[in-house]
Design goal:
Helix content: 25-40%
Structural class: alpha+beta
Oligomer: single chain
Number of strands: 19
Shape: globular
Strand order of the largest sheet: 6-5-4-1-7-8
Strand content: 15-25%
Radius of gyration: 25 Å
Distance between the termini: 44 Å
Mean pLDDT: 97
Length: 445
């Protein structure tokens, strides 16, 4: 439990820098799917980051004072409920197992919290993220205020604890990187499995089943997000989910899917021909996207800012659009005009990456946290070792009168997970082939 205790200590140190106080970090609630069936439970990422504890109905309280305390509130032991729902640690065992200074039953929260908040200089809490808990905190504050005549002070400041944790979570430690590397390897093998089995006549949901099988076979607890398995024109829908469309001979298949392992996500996209052979137009656009990704990877290193890779990818994509006739040079002008006016967004409308970690769209600021003049934008954040981000350029061609018909309904995205290192980046998802030759060779076997 050392990584979790170390993280709690780091957060407590930051709380002291702001004058001390009490932090409240709840886990996620259970959510009903329908009738008496719940959605599969998944704990809150902030909560897990500080505890390693996966049971619902739990709250972490950190006290930064004369004596620091890390306290866990969790479900009490209940042998009857354990028959139905499974093992519960209970406060005593949870305190010992997860290294907390103290633990209480979750039912004691309303009694203990006013005591802990009394005379605390500040409250560290993410207001608005849990409306029910917001209401309870207001009640606890009111209980403390009612003791004013006895000389008890109420917290006079509030800080968003997520802001502090976001900065911590943005930089992955060795344990986190090891998990993410393993998650990436599992997901890469799942993409390989889908390529091997693909053929005309299969349906999207059948390829999704192969992905899920591979995830679970290697110990992944869940998909990191709803898998995108899109064939033909569906690949031009950015957030398409696997449906029942049939893979037709000559169609491309775009799969954007990754597993979650021990609470850390992976995120891979590969695009391949359903029949194992790229057509001429498909190959032409695919090579452009692949070259754009290579340019973005080259610019993913310390000293470059977050948008450097995007800018490099856009330059390659825009030039490719002009070279293939996707964009008519006589109408749109030069490469510089295409980029400046954003004309390329007809075929490429999203950013080239995002942070990755416990959440597939992970936390962390994308711009520098510094003051700028009114009306001036904050600069994009510089990349540093330990950050993990995706690199995912694409081209999506919908039918239009001014677009060559040979490219209609072609949707291509290539996405990898990159760990920023001291001298560049390490592609964690390299186990999934992405060159035309490698993909076709894999699909022949």
């Amino acid at each position: 439990m050392k990584p979790y205790a170390d993280r709690r200590a780091r957060l407590l140190a930051q709380m002291h820098e702001k004058g001390g106080g009490v932090a409240i970090i709840p886990t996620a609630p259970e959510v009903m799917r329908n009738r008496d069936a719940d959605y599969p439970y998944r704990h809150d990422s902030y909560f897990y980051y500080l505890s390693g504890f996966t049971e619902p109905e739990a709250v972490i309280v950190l006290v930064a004072g004369k004596t620091d305390q890390a306290i866990l509130f969790c479900r009490d032991k209940n042998l009857e409920r354990e028959i139905w729902d499974g093992y519960r640690y209970g406060p005593q065992a949870a305190r010992e197992k997860f290294g907390f200074d103290a633990a209480f039953a979750i039912d004691a929260l309303d009694v203990e919290m006013p005591k802990l908040m009394a005379d605390a200089p500040a409250l560290f809490y993410s207001l608005g993220s849990d409306h029910k808990l917001d209401t309870r905190i207001q009640q606890w504050l009111q209980t403390v205020r009612m003791q004013a005549r006895a000389g008890v002070a109420t917290p006079s400041a509030m800080h968003d604890v997520h802001v502090l944790l976001d900065e911590m979570r943005l930089f992955k430690d060795a344990d986190e990187i090891a998990i993410m590397r393993r998650a990436a390897a599992i997901s890469a093998e799942a993409h390989c499995r889908a390529m091997r089995i693909s053929r005309p006549g299969l349906r999207e949901y059948q390829l999704e089943a192969e992905l899920l099988h591979e995830f679970r076979r290697h110990g992944s607890q869940y998909p990191a997000y709803g898998s995108i398995v899109a064939t033909g024109a569906n690949a031009c829908v950015l957030h398409y989910r696997a449906g029942d469309a049939e893979i037709r001979d000559g169609d491309l298949v775009l799969i954007d899917a990754g597993c979650e392992l021990d609470s850390y996500a992976s995120d891979i996209t590969r695009t391949f021909p359903g029949n194992g052979r790229f057509s001429g137009p498909q190959k032409a656009l695919y090579e452009i996207v692949l070259a754009a990704q290579a340019a973005a990877i080259a610019d993913t290193r310390p000293g470059k800012h977050f948008m450097s890779g995007h800018d490099a990818a856009v330059k390659v994509l825009a030039q490719g659009m002009l070279d293939t006739g996707l964009l008519d040079k006589n109408k749109v002008g030069s490469l510089e005009d295409v980029i400046e006016k954003g004309v390329y967004r007809q075929f490429y409308m999203h950013r080239t990456g995002h942070w990755l970690g416990m959440d597939v769209h992970d936390v962390g600021e994308y711009r520098e946290a510094r003051n700028v003049a009114p009306g001036e934008e904050k600069p994009w954040r510089a990349l540093q070792p330990g950050m993990v981000l995706t690199i995912e350029p694409g081209i999506y061609v919908r039918p239009a009168d001014d677009v060559p018909e040979q490219f209609w309904h072609i949707g291509i995205r290539i996405e990898d997970d990159a760990l920023v290192t001291a001298d560049g980046c390490d592609i964690l998802t390299s186990g999934a082939p992405k060159s035309v030759d490698d993909i076709e060779a894999l699909m022949r076997h």
